[in-house]
Amino acid sequence: EASRNFANKIWNASRFIMMNLEGKTVTEPENLNDLCAEDKWILSHLNTVIREATENMEKYELGIAVQKVYDFLWDELCDWYIEMAKVRLWKAEEDPKAANDALWTLRTALTEGLKLLHPYMPFITEEIYCTLNPDEDSIMIAAWPKETEDFAYAEDEAAVEMIKEAVRGIRNVRTGMNVPPSKKAKVFVVSESENVRNTFENGKVFFATLGSASEVTVQAD
User: Fold this and answer.
1) What does the pLDDT look like over 82-92, one tens digit per residue?
2) pTM recorded for the entire structure
3) Residue 182's closest CA among 205, 214, 204?
4) How far apart are CA 171 and CA 181, in angstroms?
């Protein structure tokens, strides 16, 4: 049952990406450092899971490796990053470059994640991989993912993790107070740290979509 749910999750993610790719030519950004913080966050996590899962597989720690791949695809990519990327995909006509960056990152993260998952779920990963990459013959002969300095974004990763924790806190408060999902609420972020305030200023858009916020105010006191 768990495997079926997981397969459905990544299949639905691939359908979402394919739907947004339809009629578009997605290109790799000229400068990866210009990507949004959430793009760098998921690529940084991808880097980590590539390194750690590969090391686990080489030590025959197969259960540990697949759990890390599972956590990356289910939680970080499908649950968090897709929701973050939707903001730019909805406004593709207004800002095509931002939408291109989000789609490229989505396709890259899922494609590389599928390669890590392939030894455990060969058939579904083959189907999704070839759907996402119609010019490729098979995932079985695709190059194994490698860790790269191009995806090393420790600061952006930490910033997005901070926003995620805040969103979780908001959700927990709303659940504890039985606030219905349709009811929006104002969010106040208070910190004496300028860096923290800047992080939340830049991440305001996520509170509307992920934290049901009607308005976000960031202040020092």
Assistant:
1) 999 998 998 88
2) 0.90
3) 214
4) 9
